[in-house]
Design goal:
Blueprint (H helix, E strand, L loop, with lengths): L9 E4 L6 E2 L1 H14 L7 H4 L7 H8 L4 H17 L6 E2 L3 H10 L3 E9 H11 L7 E5 L9 H12 L7 E5 L2 H10 L2 E5 L6 H6 L4 E3 L5 H5 L5
Parallel strand pairs: 1-4, 1-6, 4-5, 6-7, 7-8
Antiparallel strand pairs: 2-3
Helix pairs in contact: 1-4, 3-4, 7-8
Length: about 220
């Protein structure tokens, strides 16, 4: 049985760029926010740096939006995202099959994301994966919660009820996820189909660098590979 031979008891996923390709909705909503505030509209390619870090950090760090203005930019972004952006998404190829295979092998599944919890659930309902997860951890919609990624990963682990950190794998597509896993004391897998790169993952010490969702299965169930 897969269950008897698994290396990890829990797999925790980042959301945007890892579980779900939400790029179209995010990028169009970001462009709307800049337009709404009379700023030049960055290209979608340039805005890809937003996917991964907390949105507050991205606006203030990458585009010099002031502390006084950033809340209004986020409100504009989320207004368009809630109305249209949540529907402009898709599951990555092979992801649903991989999630179901992990569950069939007795693995608990979690999410740890800097995306607001309400929006995570909205997108999960759109792509039909809500029932596949045992723990979902995100941030507050009003941005009152700014824990680092390590705190989000650790909270998801605790909610999953796995005490042994060696039995937990964090899966992400940016170095924030890899650093968050390290900070939480768990292994990590960087997924190349998202918004990061092999160089980024290796520089930050990812335990694994994988190309496809299905590549997780021989990592978790090595004797069944």
């Amino acid at each position: 049985m897969m269950e008897a031979n698994r290396t990890y008891d829990a797999v925790i996923f980042d959301f945007d760029g890892t579980l779900v390709d939400t790029g179209e909705g995010i990028l169009k909503s970001l462009q709307f926010a800049f337009e709404d505030h009379g700023r030049p509209i960055p290209t979608a390619e340039d805005l890809k740096k937003f996917i991964g870090p907390p949105i507050y950090y991205s606006f203030t760090t990458f585009y010099d939006v002031s502390e006084d203005e950033v809340g209004d930019y986020i409100k504009s972004y989320r207004r368009r995202y809630r109305e249209k952006g949540i529907y402009e998404c898709r599951l990555y190829d092979g992801m649903e099959e991989t999630l179901r295979a992990l569950r069939a092998g007795g693995v608990k599944l979690g999410i740890a994301s800097s995306k607001p919890l309400h929006l995570i659930y909205d997108v999960m309902r759109v792509v039909g994966i809500t029932e596949l997860f045992d723990a979902v951890v995100g941030t507050m919609l009003d941005d009152s919660r700014h824990e680092g990624k390590a705190d989000l990963v650790d909270e998801s682990r605790r909610k999953l009820g796995v005490e042994d950190k060696r039995r937990v794998l964090m899966v992400g597509d940016r170095y924030f996820d890899i650093d968050g896993a390290a900070g939480a004391g768990v292994d990590s897998a960087g997924m190349l189909y998202g918004y990061g790169s092999r160089e980024e993952f290796e520089a930050h010490g990812a335990t694994f660098v994988l190309s496809r969702a299905s590549d997780l299965l021989p990592v978790v169930f090595p004797k069944n590979a």
